[in-house]
């Protein structure tokens, strides 16, 4: 059986996404307030990754009809961020992963943090001319960035490197990879 993944752009500008595992691995551009539908056969896995100024950002990682007949998905910021992204099973907000206000929370935290923290993050936090954060680099490459992001997003999104290679990972990150409820369309 094939299900759908609905990629919705809730912003007022075009948004490009890398698509891995579906759509012939071709990028998509979703117009403002538009939806792009991707066919996702049962048993398939892939990722939808937002691009910001040509850099990878937040990503939804999805396995359709995985172990026990459930969908598995998470929303990860380990390769960067520059927007607000969530993933959930259609009509089931209890399965939502990600922070729908991630960038607003990031900017609030950035403006409230001390100068020493801002100085330590200047190489991986990118700002506009008004001093607002436009994107961040890969969290996995900057331990100090992971520490900072956890101050406002811990438990809301997958931030660090989870339980891999013998490491127990972070419990809140591991919880982000929990199963959905059955096999449905994803948005």
Features of the shown structure:
single chain; 19% helix; alpha+beta; two-stranded antiparallel ribbon; 4 helices; 187 residues; 5-stranded antiparallel beta sheet
In short:
This protein has 187 residues and is of the alpha+beta class. It is 19% helix and 33% strand.
Tell me what the structure shows:
The protein has 187 residues and is an alpha+beta fold. It has 4 helices and 11 strands; from the N terminus they run E-E-E-E-E-E-E-E-E-H-H-E-E-H-H. It has a 5-stranded antiparallel β-sheet, with no helix packed on it. A two-stranded antiparallel ribbon has the order 1-4. Strands 8-9 form a two-stranded antiparallel sheet. Strand 10 (125-127) and strand 11 form a beta hairpin. Helix 1 (102-112) packs across helix 3. The radius of gyration is 16 Å and the shape is globular.
Give the SSE layout.
Elements: E1 2-8, E2 15-20, E3 28-30, E4 35-41, E5 45-52, E6 55-63, E7 72-76, E8 87-89, E9 92-97, H1 102-112, H2 115-121, E10 125-127, E11 133-136, H3 143-153, H4 171-176
Antiparallel strand pairs: 1-4, 2-3, 2-5, 5-6, 6-7, 8-9, 10-11
Helix pairs in contact: 1-3
Using the alpha-carbon principal axes, give the shape.
Answer: globular
Average the pLDDT over all residues and give the rounded result: 93
How far from one another are the termini?
Answer: 18 Å
Oligomeric composition of the shown chains: single chain
Low-confidence spans: none
How big is the Rg?
16 Å
Structural class: alpha+beta
Care to count the β-strands?
11
Query: Largest beta sheet, briefly?
Result: 5 strands, antiparallel
Question: What percent of the residues sit in helical stretches (DSSP H or I)?
Answer: 10-25%
Strand order within the widest beta sheet? 3-2-5-6-7
Helix-strand pattern:
EEEEEEEEEHHEEHH
Strand content: 25-35%
The number of helical runs is: 4
């Amino acid at each position: 059986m094939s299900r759908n993944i609905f990629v919705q752009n809730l912003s007022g500008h075009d948004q490009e996404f890398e698509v891995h595992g579906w759509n012939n691995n071709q990028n998509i551009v979703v117009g403002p307030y538009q939806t792009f539908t991707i066919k996702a056969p049962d048993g398939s896995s892939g990722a939808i990754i937002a691009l910001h100024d040509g850099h990878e950002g937040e990503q939804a990682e999805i396995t359709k009809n995985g172990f026990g007949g459930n969908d598995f998905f998470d929303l990860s910021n380990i390769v960067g961020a520059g927007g607000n992204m969530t993933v959930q099973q259609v009509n089931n907000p209890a399965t939502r992963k990600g922070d729908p206000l991630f960038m607003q929370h990031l900017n609030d935290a950035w403006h409230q943090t001390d100068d020493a923290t801002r100085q330590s993050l200047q190489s991986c936090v990118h700002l506009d001319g008004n001093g607002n954060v436009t994107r961040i680099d890969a969290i996995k490459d900057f331990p100090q960035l992971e520490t900072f992001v956890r101050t406002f997003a811990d438990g809301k999104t997958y931030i660090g490197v989870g339980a891999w290679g013998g490491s127990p990972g972070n419990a809140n990150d591991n919880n982000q990879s929990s199963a959905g409820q059955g096999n449905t369309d994803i948005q």
